[in-house]
Design goal:
single chain, 313 residues, alpha/beta, Rossmann fold, eight-stranded mixed β-sheet, 42% helix
Length: 313
């Protein structure tokens, strides 16, 4: 393991996710199995970028301690983060030494607004990921992140494959269908009673969305082969127990925590956040070592990061 990479990314992801601290475990692991195991090319195409924060931190970017995802939310929406009403403040935008995407695609308009605000990606476009509007066979490298809000992941992969040049490469993060067994909130929300309704709200449709495009390694291999993509390597990680903890963590009282921290003036909020992070960071680091599965290769994993090669035109 590249310990310096893990230590720095864990702190930076915790900075933006501090009220859901185990989100930092997921993003540190996925950034590691993607970026430290697969060689990226500058000016790559990014598909399913989300709000752009994952890639920015993965490549070495940093947000100020005073910033996080909970400053810009809308409690009236099903996805409280699908909003962009507050400008993201970066002290200095220094991207010269970082590998950057030439263009980022995402299906959500507010995500694209955030990507453009951060400025790490040189261009951002909101579009259906099943139909990427770039010329065929023009791209050397694609990073296909875990997308949300799509109807057909296989169609998205087909669309991405079409814009790759022959011998072009794609790094893609996908779910193993093993992850489906580890949604605690969904399992607890299947009955019809008050407690079940509570956990159904916590799940918030995540199981139904992710289970649609989580597959076994053999199934992924067939999909890639069908789209003229040869597997060069696969890096896997995250135990089922880690996903169970991530699935629950602070979700039952997240809105209370957000309201509590956002009640305070900026300077006091930042100080409280810093001490919160100091409390959780060593816990998360030990948890990462034990349950990321990077040290235990024989365990079942929730994620796979594939490096693929386009073998035919």
């Amino acid at each position: 393991m590249k310990i310096n990479f893990i230590l720095s990314r864990l702190w930076q992801y915790l900075n933006i996710y501090f009220l859901k601290p185990f989100d930092a475990i997921n993003d540190t692991l996925t950034s590691y199995i993607i970026f430290k195991k697969i060689k990226f090319k500058n000016n790559y195409v990014e598909i399913g970028s989300g709000d752009g924060m994952f890639s920015y931190i993965m490549h070495g970017g940093r947000f100020p301690l005073s910033f996080d995802r909970y400053l810009d939310i809308d409690f009236d929406k099903k996805n409280i983060f699908d909003v962009h009403s507050a400008k993201i403040q970066l002290k200095k935008k220094k991207f010269d030494n970082l590998i950057r995407p030439a263009v980022s695609f995402d299906s959500r308009k507010n995500h694209v607004k955030k990507i453009l605000n951060i400025g790490f990606s040189k261009k951002a476009i909101s579009t259906k990921l099943e139909s990427i509007h770039l010329k065929k066979k023009t791209t050397n490298f694609i990073f296909f992140y875990t997308p949300h809000g799509i109807n057909d992941l296989e169609k998205c992969i087909k669309s991405a494959s079409k814009i790759l040049k022959k011998k072009g490469k794609m790094a893609i993060l996908v779910f193993d269908n093993y992850v489906n067994k580890n949604f605690i909130s969904y399992r607890l929300g299947t009955n019809k009673n008050f407690i079940s309704n509570f956990f159904k709200k916590i799940d918030n449709g995540r199981y139904n969305e992710i289970s649609k495009y989580s597959k076994s390694p053999k199934e992924w291999e067939k999909i890639f082969k069908k789209n003229n993509l040869k597997i060069l390597r696969v890096n896997s990680g995250l135990s089922g127990f880690a996903w169970k903890v991530y699935d629950i963590q602070t979700r039952p009282f997240l809105k209370i925590l957000i309201r509590f921290f956002n009640f305070f003036p900026k300077i006091i909020r930042t100080i409280l956040k810093f001490f919160w992070m100091l409390l959780f960071y060593p816990i998360l680091l030990v948890f990462f070592i034990l349950f990321s599965n990077l040290l235990f290769k024989d365990r079942l994993n929730c994620y796979h990061a594939y490096e693929l090669l386009k073998i035919r035109k």
